[in-house]
Amino acid sequence: MKTILHRADTRGFANHGWLQANHSFSFANWYDKDRMNFGALRVLNDDVIAPKMGFGTHPHKNMEIITIPLSGELKHRDSMGNQWESVQAGEVQVMSAGHGVEHSEINGSQESHLNLFQIWIIPNAENVEPRYDQKTFEASKRRNFLQPLVSSITNGIESTLKIHQDAIISRVDLDANTPFQYTLKHKDYGVYVMVIQGELKIETLTLHTRDAIGISNVKHFYMSSLSETSLLFIEVPMEI
Question: Domain Quercetin 2,3-dioxygenase C-terminal cupin: where (predicted)?
């Protein structure tokens, strides 16, 4: 088993006043040649956005963009005709940028901060027609069970959102002192595990809130929660 450990305090950080951004991989003005990507996973940003603030209209091309609000409300508008769609905590949003799209993202609350993960995955098909979707996923259905959120548009998992890459994004919420096994779909894939909250043991490593580990060259591996723990799994092809 090959592992890459990213402690929470080694992430890139940018304080823009209205935006507090943590970058697991090189992004914007933060660059680390050893942290460009994990296989097809290019970006994992952990953003806190002040009330009423957000990102003005900007373009994307040939990227699969997945947004997971953890608390608060995101408002989204784009050049595909979506007008200030509300994406709440508990929902997941996907956008295939394809041959080109413009969008805006703001905190939909006048009072509360918005915390979200934004994930960019390198697609396996370029210059496709841009597309947008969102879906609610009930937290009760991931209590000690793996809950797939996003999968491939061509051979994906039923009831998940779809992207142009043979990737799987999943969550699980573990009770304290609960063992859990994760099985990868293929030996040439890897999975990036982010501890959203809690404490986790993987082999001899203990991971805490916002620590992450990339795992590859293995079919399955075991972990155990040391407290109530919420995990995000991003499984991707390692060769792109």
Answer: 154-236
CB 166 within 8 A of CB 136: no
Q: How far is CA 5 from the centre of its chain?
A: 17
237: three-class secondary structure by DSSP: strand
Kindly state which CATH superfamily the domain 2-237 is placed in: Jelly Rolls (2.60.120.10)
As given in the structure block, the two tokens for residue 101 are 């799209």
* Residue 140 DSSP SS3: helix
Are β-strands 85-88 and 19-23 bridged in parallel, bridged antiparallel, or unpaired? Answer: unpaired
Tell me the CA end-to-end span of the chain in Å, nearest whole number.
Answer: 20
Q: Which of 66, 107, 70 is nearest to 86 (CA)?
A: 107
Bridge partners, residue 55, by sequence: 105
For the chain, what are the domain ranges? 2-237
Q: According to the annotation, is 60 in a ligand binding site? A: yes
Please say whether the beta carbons of 233 and 192 come within 8 A.
yes
Q: Reply yes or no on whether the pLDDT at 18 is more than 90.
A: yes
**Which residues neighbour 81 within 8 Å (Cβ) at sequence distance 6 or greater?**
none
What is the tens place of the pLDDT at every residue in 48-105? Answer: 999 999 999 999 999 999 999 999 999 999 999 999 999 999 999 999 999 999 999 9
Distances (CA, A) of 22 to 172, 188, 212: 22, 28, 13
**What's the token pair of residue 207?**
């991971």
Whether residue 105 is annotated as binding a ligand: the answer is yes
